[in-house]
Amino acid sequence: MASSDEKHESVISSGESGGVVEPPPYTVFNRFERVLYAWVASVAAFASPVSTGIYYPALTVLATALDTSLQNINLSITTYMIFQAIAPTFVGGVSDRYGRRPAYFMCFVIYIAANTGLALQTSYVALLLLRMLQSAGSSGTIALSNGVVSDVSTRSQRGKYIGIAALGSNLGPTLGPLIGGLLVHFQGWRAIFWFLDIYSLVMILTIALFIPETCRNIVGNGGVPPQRWNVPLISLLRSRGNKNTPVATSTLSHKKRPSIIESLHIARSKEAFCLIFFSGLQAGGYFILLAGLPTQLETTFHYNSIQVGLCYIPMGAGILIARQIVGRLIDFNFQRHAKKLGIQLVKNRQTSTEGFPVERARLEVAFPLVYLGCITVVPYGWVMHLQKPPLPLALFLLFCNSLSMNASKFSSSTATPRAPPPPPQPQTSSAVS
């Protein structure tokens, strides 16, 4: 059964005079504002993948500086990934309950503290613990970006906005190793964490000054003012200058706020669990390729940190192409199914999902890409096992694998099933996937 919100947004209701009136728009934000918020969410989502990618060129240098083995340094990647899986489930609940802005501030404050500690630490144990904290702060930003997109775009339009919001998380694996290689080569490994600190401060200031709250539990379609403490500073200054425009403190109190552990309830359904397990296998295999590449390049080809970073460009290019293509494919398939069922898609109106095969429309795009990704992994292993592996062929296979696996993960994550009523919030659902 469709939720009450969906009915309110997709069904024509009767006015007090008995006449038929149009329902309110899904969002009051205009196209420029929606694109702007998607871009800011994209830059914020850069935090999670860049924290991983920027670290790879420094693995050997860190092992030497901290007087430990490369295997121990690789363990810090494993612990980072564990928290990368756990943290978004809690960030998602906090975001749907208290708003996107407070969740962003929480993430970046933790992230700044962790990066400062990493830049100053001198022991392996401190590195291990602070990498966990760094992951806890950065990992929720990707799910937050998906939540922002869900707030301001309807299902039929969501693919193109997610394509924008995902750009930051796509650029991370490409720019991260490049930035890390340059910083390690010219400034030393500590510089990579100071760089992340500066980036975090810029993001906090941008969100605090300019970006409004978009969470639909707080502001509805954007027409309900949030709490005063949750208003951008620019808006506060404007309201003080205009006494006729007070800043209200009301929220949508009539709606049941989601629990901060809502994502754990979603994961209990077998459909969601299958998608989580599927995404986990994809992510695990992909990160194995990412983490193993620096050591192979340094031992086999004797590359320095800059050259190692450059070899990640094909993988990053695959991610960029994947996200731009798959968003359009998902929108096209959604519209194809709607036309087949005789459902009319109205601009800026949410379409009811009752009787609509949402999961099928998404997974039809995902499965062919999964097969392609699996096919490219095996020959890559054979090529790199050779005594003198042809590097161009290996990088081409990495490009194909990156394109297919990331495209399939993106298309399958948008098919995260909805739990039984009350329906989960978009941020929480995204955190589950």
TrEMBL record:
TM segment ranges: 36-58, 70-91, 103-122, 192-211, 272-293, 305-326, 365-383
A Pfam family it matches: MFS_1
Top-level taxonomic group: Eukaryota
Membrane topology: Multi-pass membrane protein
Major facilitator superfamily (MFS) profile domain boundaries: 37-433
Subcellular localization: Membrane
Keywords: Glycoprotein, Membrane, Transmembrane, Transmembrane helix, Transport
Region (Disordered): 411-433
GO MF term list: citrate transmembrane transporter activity
Name of protein: Major facilitator superfamily (MFS) profile domain-containing protein
Gene3D superfamilies the UniProt entry points to: MFS general substrate transporter like domains
Gene Ontology cellular component terms for the protein in this record: plasma membrane
Record-linked InterPro entries: MFS, MFS_dom, MFS_trans_sf
One GO BP annotation of this record: export across plasma membrane
Main location: membrane
